[in-house]
Amino acid sequence: MNRRTLAACATAFATGIVMLSATPAFALSRTEVMARARKWVDLAIPYSQTFYRDDNGATATASVGWRCDCSGFVSMTWKTSHPGLSTRTLHYVSTVIPRELLQPGDALVSYNNHAVLFGGWANAERTHYYAYEMSSSASRQSTTAPDGTVIRVTPYPYWSWPADRPYVPYRRDGVTGSIDYEPYIQRVQGANRYETAVAASRAAFPDGAPAAVIASGEDWPDALSASSLAGALGGPVLLSASTRLPAAVAEEVQRLQARSLVVVGGPSAVATSVVEALKAIPGVSSVKRVAGSNRYETARAVADETRRIAGAPEAAFLCTGENFPDALAAAPLAYASGWPVLLTQTGALSEDASAVLVAARPQRVYVLGGEAVVSTQTVAAAADALGPAVPIARVAGPDRYDTALRVAALGVDRCGLSYAAPAIATGDGFADALAGGAMAGARKGVLLLTPTSRMYSKLWTQLAKVSAQVGKPFTLGGDAALSPTVRTAIALALEPVRPPQ
Q1: Rounded to whole angstroms, how far apart are CA atoms 53 and 439?
Q2: Which residues contact 118 (CB under 8 A, 6 or more apart)?
Q3: Quick check: 161 and 113 in contact, CB under 8 A?
Q4: Which among 8, 34, 323, 476 could bridge 425 via Cys, Cβ 3.0 to 4.6 Å?
C-alpha cells in the first residue's frame, strides 16, 4: 500500500464510507475467526518475526504456518495465505469500514506499523475495546502479560501510533455472521412518502384519533409548523399530493375514525380538489384550511390556531424558513408541548414570526440552527419584540445532525420526551421526518437525523450511551432513505457490551 492508498483509507475511515468489494472466493464465519484468535491467545505464543505456528499453535514451517508477529496473527485468524500478509498488504483481502460497523473478527491496521483483531466493545461508551493481538510491547503497557499473544482492554483506536499511520478498521472479505439489525429496529415505511406517513400514523395511533392534520408531501415549509397543531388536536400529520388525495391517506383517515381534519397550506400546496376529497370521506364532519399567502404567514396561522386550541405556549421555536433540517428535529417537541415552530428569513425577522411572539408572549424562545441560518440580527430583532424579560437561547451544532441531537436533548430536559423509542430519519431529505416527527411526539420520543448512507458518528455514540433506555428505534422510510449500513450501525450501538467468550 503506498501513501496515496493509505490516505484514501484514512479518508474513508473518517467519512464512514464503506467500499464494496467483489464477491469473495470463500466464506469465513466470525465465530471461526474469534475461535482461531482465542486458541493462539490461550497458548500465549511468544512474539517472533522468524518463527511460524500452525492453526493449533504448533511449531511449523513458513509453508504451512503463520508468522508470530502482529500481522501474522491477524492473517492466521483470517485464514490468509501462508506465512501471512503484512500491515502493508492486509488490505488486499479486506475492506475499509467505519468505526460504527466494527464487529468481532474485524481488524484495526496501522500501515507499516501494527495490526490487532477487534474482539468487541469493552464499555457502553465505545471508547475501549477488547484487542486480540500478537504484541511485541505487551509487557510495557500496564499489563503483566509477556510479549506475544494477548487479549487486553485497549483505548480506541490504540494506545499510540505515528501521526501519518492512523489505525483504520478493516473487514475480511467473505466474512459471515454479521449482526442482523431487524430485531433491533421497528420499520416505519411505505412504498412512498405518503404511505410512510400512513405507517407513522398507524404506529402512533393504533386505536384511532379524533383528528388529523393534512399537509403537502411535495414540499416542506407548511408541514414544518404542523406538528404543534397536530399535538393540540391529538392526531397525526398525514401528507398529500398537491392535486390529488392518495388512496392510502383516505383509508387511514377512515381507520382513524377522524371526524375533524385540518389542511395546512393554501390551494397551491393542497388543492381545493383534495379538500373536497377529504370532505367526502365517510365519518368526516369538518375540514378546515389553515393557511397564509406564503410559508411565513402559514406558520403564523398555524401558531394562532394552535394557541386558540391549547392556550398560550410556554416556549416557541424560531427557525429559518429557507431550509428544513433544523425545524424537523423540533417536531416531537412542538407536538408534545404545543410550542409553535415560527419561520423567518435568515437575515431579518419575518413580520409574521414577530407578530406571533408579541401576541403569544412565550416565556422563552429557542433559536434552532447557527448564525448562518438565523443571523444574530434576526435574534436581536426577536429580543426587541419580546423585551429583556424573555430569554432567547440558540440550539445549534456544527451541522444539521448535531443540531438534531441538541434539540433532542432539549426535548428530554424540557418536554418530557425520552430515548425509549426514538425515531430515526435521514437528514438528507424531508419527507419521512415530516410525519415521523409528529409520530415521535405522540409517543413521547425524540427525532434523530443521520445521513442516508452512513451513520452519523455522534448519533451512534449517543445511541450507545443511552442504549439501556432504548427499546426499538423507529426507522423512517425504506432502504433508500436509511441504508442497511445505517440500520446495522443502529443495531451495533444498541448491542449489549459483552466480555469475550
Answers
A1: 58
A2: 102, 103, 104, 105, 106, 107, 108, 129, 130, 131, 132, 169
A3: yes
A4: 476
Q: How far apart are the first and last CA of the chain?
A: 34
In the block, residue with C-alpha cell 386558540: 308
Task: Give the Cα separation of 196 and 190 in Å (integer).
Answer: 4
Q: Is the dihedral of CA 422, 420, 99, 158 positive or negative?
A: positive
Instruction: Enter the DSSP assignment of 385.
Output: H
Provide Rg for the chain, Cα atoms: 27
Tell me which H or E stretch contains 6.
helix 3-15
* Contact in structure between 284 and 252 (CB atoms under 8 Å): no
Q: Please provide the size of the chain in residues.
A: 501
Interacting residues of 345 by C-beta distance below 8 A, sequence separation 6+:
296, 320, 321, 322, 378
- CA 291/CA 293 separation, integer angstroms: 7
pLDDT of residue 11: 38
Average pLDDT per 10 consecutive residues for the chain, totaling 501 residues: 39 40 70 97 93 95 96 98 97 97 98 97 95 75 66 95 96 97 97 97 98 95 92 97 98 98 97 98 98 96 97 96 90 96 95 97 97 96 95 97 98 97 94 92 97 97 95 96 97 93 73
CA–CA distance, 67 with 386 (Å, rounded to integer): 73
Predicted local distance difference test score (pLDDT) of residue 273: 98
